[in-house]
Write a structure and sequence with these properties.
Structural class: alpha/beta
Radius of gyration: 19 Å
Oligomer: single chain
Number of strands: 3
């Protein structure tokens, strides 16, 4: 398990080095704007010295939100933004900011549903579903879950 994780991090860090033409011991900033398992991976890599093993000194910084992270990258204050395809990142790309997606840590649809204690199976939700936040991710996650479970 640990060997596989190390291999993935080495591949990611090499892509980071290639993307920035980094020289050994170069100081880089990596920002994130959420607090999730995705952000947790960055701290695991930092604590286990995965970046240093590849000759990169990475500063992991949490910022308030996606637009702030995009602004930091655009201004050159951060070289990397750990993000999924969000409105901020895709909008910045569509608006002409020269950024690219380099790698994916968690390539799966993830989301959570809060339901009443009366709900025991997905079928109990049939005809009662609604999305509390109108976003592509929330509604896409809900639709995919419904199609899989038949709800």
């Amino acid at each position: 398990m640990r060997r596989g994780l190390r291999l993935r991090w080495r591949l990611f860090i090499r892509s980071v080095l290639a993307a920035t033409a980094a020289t050994p011991n170069r100081k880089l900033s990596l920002v994130f704007a959420d607090f999730s398992e995705r952000a947790g991976l960055l701290f695991v890599a930092k604590d286990h010295h995965f970046f240093e093993e590849q000759g990169v000194d990475v500063d992991v910084v949490q910022v308030r939100n996606g637009p702030v992270a995009i602004a930091a990258v655009a201004a050159g204050e951060a070289q990397f933004y750990s993000v999924s395809a969000t409105g901020a990142s895709l909008g910045a790309m569509a608006g002409g900011l020269d950024i690219v997606f380099v790698a994916g840590f968690i390539n799966r649809l993830d989301g959570y549903f809060a339901v009443s204690t009366k709900v025991r199976a997905p079928e109990d939700l049939k005809g009662r579903l609604s999305v509390s936040k109108a976003s592509a991710a929330a509604s896409g996650c809900l639709r995919k879950s419904c199609s899989i479970t038949g709800a």
